[in-house]
């Protein structure tokens, strides 16, 4: 059923423009999705979903650049706005109207902070796209891996949850699975950060008594989850490190919502 | 006549002093930079009604919510009774509302008594939580002697005021039953009738008690009013404007700095001329006067409940950062700046600033910008905005970001990614 060898040709905006075509939606991959080995798998899975349902989409490829999110959170507004304006120029040159992102940080930045600098697009996170496709009946949870017997929990990324009030979309992708769902003690608007936000991903943490992802692991262990669903590449890194640190790699899996969807549908 | 004159003098003095101190706080808040929070008034009124009036963000902690609700409703409704007490004080009357209100008056006084008992009970529970149960939320580096005493003073004063109110009613009730003097039969006393047996039966002694409690209660209230501007308890007033001027954008959205936009546009297009010059100022915030008036209003609104700090991921894992401390430091510093102006004139500059003298860099760099603090605040205070503004100062004015962040900035600038990968490899994942 599952076909790991299925290779999809991912279209770029440049190639489509050369053919005089305009895709329905731009998939904004993000830096983690482009360079981080673990996140690249998620990126490919998002493409598989887009391909499977037949949405016409494209990516920017090498024309994509950092949204400026980590610079902005760290206080470097100059660098953020330089990045933002350059990106807006590229997006506007391709007359992009609708964007799906693979990362809550890119999602938040383009959706909320680009309009003030002249970049106006309809922006959704990939979990929202998946929810939409489920609602339209285009995605089910059949033909692929069964999640029966798994105890699945979901970790809310700050910039999707509290930052933009997206709590239900990623859960919708889990609710269609034949599995036991369990909420973490701190979830939704009470969700605990993974520790990577605010540019912490790119620096050593300040001195403290423990790591934030270790604090989060306690919630996961308490929930006795065997699969943790993530929706952010940075959360993914932090959660996996947490699992590794607890030596629970055999017992606890960490997968993105997109990966779970791809597996459940055997894409 | 003497009593009336004395009352009127005390009342005028109390109101004058209170207005003067509120005026100072208002002036201090307006030392902040301008910021527009005037759009969408309909939604703003709704937000205020929901969050300040309706206290919807309190319910996350049910016990505290119920107790706080008793005190809040008690405070607002018992103020009707304070109105009567004031009028009685001014006109030398006794229970001036009893005649015009008739049967409703009995109901009201009975209701006030029950509320007074609930307020009393809630304050005792709150004192126990702070001083016996030692809830973790009420401790922390910023909870030094003054903030702890401040909380205990507020609760103790409220207990004393309620005790005086109920004792006054108990004595009044007994005097009514004795048909003594001007003590007309008015009101119902579901709570204070239980205090009655503890009081003497002598009419003159009862009158002394009734008058004593009356004066203690009303002078106590006026004194408490004048304590507010020095106390965290000022939240009872500022919670309303503070929620009205709430951030209505998604929490993840940070402000785009217009001053930077102008510079960036000028860099990209040399012919670009910025629309307005505006206040030049510095990038970000080094001191409280670099923050907006809204940030400063929030500092005066904070009642140090610690919900922000208790959910902060950095604080929970032992880092120095405490969002409550950010707000308390901001308030302490703006108060200090205000005092300097009072003493040395408005151009006086001391050699202190919010950054380093109050808030350390280690605190600022521990923040994950997760918005747990802003979500937890029952009156929509935003410590994250102050943290971000101070980071902006450190990065853009001082170039003093931690080295690893400077590396990240360099990578974003040169490769378009926070890591050291070549942009040419950005699409390699597809192969």
Structure commentary:
Chain B: The chain crosses the membrane at residues 6-23, 63-87, 107-128, 212-230. Chain B: Keywords: 4Fe-4S, Iron, Iron-sulfur, Membrane, Metal-binding, Oxidoreductase, Transmembrane, Transmembrane helix. Chain B: Residues 293-323, 357-387 form the 4Fe-4S ferredoxin-type domain. Chain B: It comes from Mucilaginibacter frigoritolerans. Chain B: Pfam families: Fer4_9. The complex is a heterodimer of chains A (267) and B (431). Helices cover 42% and strands 10% of the residues of chain A. Chain A has 267 residues and is an alpha/beta fold. Chain A folds into two domains: 13-131, Rossmann fold; 140-265, Rossmann fold, CATH 3.40.50. In chain A, the strands form two sheets. Chain A has a four-stranded parallel beta sheet with strand order 2-1-3-4. In chain A, α3 packs across α11 and α9 packs across α10 (233-245). Chain A is globular, with a radius of gyration of 18 Å. In chain B, α13 (323-344) crosses α17 (383-397). The model of chain B has no long low-confidence stretch (mean pLDDT 95). Chain B folds into two domains: 2-30 and 61-234; 258-415, Fumarate Reductase Iron-sulfur Protein, Chain B, domain 2 (Orthogonal Bundle), CATH 1.10.1060. With 431 residues, chain B is an all-alpha fold. The termini of chain B are far apart. Chain B contains 18 helices and no strands. At the A-B interface, α2, α3, α4, α5 and α6 of A face α9, α12, α16, α17 and α18 of B.
Considering the chains and any ligands shown, give keywords for the structure.
heterodimer; A: 267 residues; alpha/beta; Rossmann fold; 2 domains; four-stranded parallel β-sheet; 42% helix; disordered N terminus; B: 431 residues; mainly alpha; Fumarate Reductase Iron-sulfur Protein, Chain B, domain 2; 18 helices
Write the layout of secondary structure elements.
The complex is a heterodimer of chains A (267) and B (431).
Chain A: H1 13-18, E1 25-28, H2 31-35, H3 37-53, E2 57-58, H4 69-73, H5 77-93, E3 98-101, H6 104-113, E4 122-125, H7 126-135, E5 151-154, H8 168-175, E6 180-181, H9 212-223, E7 227-230, H10 233-245, E8 253-256, H11 257-265
Parallel strand pairs in A: 1-2, 1-3, 3-4, 5-6, 5-7, 7-8
Chain B: H1 2-29, H2 41-53, H3 62-91, H4 98-101, H5 103-131, H6 145-177, H7 203-227, H8 235-244, H9 258-268, H10 293-301, H11 307-311, H12 313-316, H13 323-344, H14 354-358, H15 361-365, H16 372-376, H17 383-397, H18 403-415
Helix pairs in contact in B: 1-7, 1-13, 2-8, 3-5, 5-6, 6-7, 8-10, 10-13, 13-17
């Amino acid at each position: 059923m599952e076909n790991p060898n299925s290779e999809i040709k991912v279209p770029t905006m440049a190639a489509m423009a050369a053919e005089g075509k305009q895709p329905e939606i731009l998939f904004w991959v993000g830096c983690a999705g482009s360079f981080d080995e673990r996140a690249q798998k998620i990126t490919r899975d998002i493409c598989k979903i887009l391909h499977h349902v037949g949405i016409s989409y494209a990516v920017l490829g090498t024309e994509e650049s950092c949204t400026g999110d980590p610079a902005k959170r760290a206080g470097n507004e100059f660098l953020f706005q330089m990045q933002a304006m350059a990106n807006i120029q590229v997006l506007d040159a391709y007359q992009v109207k609708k964007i799906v992102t693979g990362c809550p940080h890119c999602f938040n930045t383009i959706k909320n902070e680009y309009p003030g600098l002249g970049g106006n697009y309809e922006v959704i996170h990939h979990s929202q796209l998946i929810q939409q496709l489920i609602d339209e009946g285009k995605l089910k949870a059949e033909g692929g891996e069964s999640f029966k017997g798994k105890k699945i929990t979901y970790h809310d990324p700050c910039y999707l949850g509290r930052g933009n009030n997206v709590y239900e979309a990623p859960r919708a992708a889990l609710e269609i699975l034949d599995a036991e769902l369990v909420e973490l003690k701190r979830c939704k608007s009470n969700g605990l950060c993974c520790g990577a936000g605010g540019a912490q991903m790119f620096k050593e943490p300040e001195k403290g008594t423990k790591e934030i992802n270790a604090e989060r692991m306690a919630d996961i262990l308490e929930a006795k989850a065997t699969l943790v669903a993530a929706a952010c590449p940075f959360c993914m890194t932090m959660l996996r490190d947490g699992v590794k640190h607890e030596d629970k790699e055999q017992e606890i899996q960490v997968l993105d919502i997109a990966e779970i969807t791809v597996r459940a549908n055997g894409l | 006549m003497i009593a009336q004159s004395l009352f009127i003098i005390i009342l005028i003095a109390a109101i004058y002093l209170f207005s003067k101190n509120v005026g100072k706080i208002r002036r201090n808040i307006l030392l902040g930079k301008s910021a527009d929070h005037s759009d969408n008034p309909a939604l703003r009124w709704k937000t205020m009604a929901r969050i300040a009036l309706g206290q919807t963000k309190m319910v996350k902690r049910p016990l505290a919510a119920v107790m706080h609700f008793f005190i809040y409703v008690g405070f607002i409704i018992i103020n009707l009774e304070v109105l009567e007490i004031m009028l009685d004080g001014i006109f030398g009357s006794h229970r001036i509302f009893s005649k015009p209100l008739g049967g409703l008056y009995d109901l009201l006084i009975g209701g006030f008594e029950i509320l007074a008992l609930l307020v009393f009970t809630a304050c005792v529970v709150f004192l126990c939580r702070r001083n016996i149960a030692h809830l973790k939320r009420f401790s922390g580096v910023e909870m030094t002697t003054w903030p702890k005493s401040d909380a205990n003073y507020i609760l103790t004063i409220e207990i004393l005021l309620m005790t005086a109110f109920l004792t006054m009613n108990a004595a009044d009730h007994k005097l009514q039953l004795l048909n003594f003097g001007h003590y007309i039969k008015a009101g119902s006393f579901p709570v204070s009738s239980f205090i009655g047996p503890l009081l003497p039966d002598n009419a003159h002694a009862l009158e002394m008690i009734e008058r004593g409690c009356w004066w203690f209660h009303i002078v106590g209230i006026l004194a408490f009013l004048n304590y507010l501007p020095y106390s965290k308890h000022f939240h009872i007033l500022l919670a309303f404007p503070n929620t009205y001027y709430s951030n209505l954008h998604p929490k993840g959205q940070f402000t785009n700095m217009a001053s930077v936009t102008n510079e960036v546009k000028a860099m990209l297009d040399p012919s670009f001329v910025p629309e307005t010059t505006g206040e030049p100022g510095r990038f970000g915030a080094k001191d409280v006067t670099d923050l907006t008036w809204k940030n400063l209003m929030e500092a005066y609104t904070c009642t140090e409940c610690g919900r922000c700090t208790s959910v902060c991921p950095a604080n929970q894992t032992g880092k120095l950062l405490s969002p409550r401390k950010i707000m308390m430091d901001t308030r302490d510093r703006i108060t200090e700046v205000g005092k300097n102006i009072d003493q040395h004139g408005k151009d006086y500059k001391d050699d202190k600033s919010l950054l380093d003298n109050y808030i350390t860099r280690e605190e600022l760099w521990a923040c994950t910008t997760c918005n747990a603090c802003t979500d937890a605040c029952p009156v929509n205070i935003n410590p994250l905005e102050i943290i971000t503004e101070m980071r902006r100062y450190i990065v853009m004015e001082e170039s003093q970001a931690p080295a690893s962040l400077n590396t990240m900035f360099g990578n974003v600038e040169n490769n378009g990614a926070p890591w050291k990968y070549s942009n040419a490899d950005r699409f390699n994942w597809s192969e």
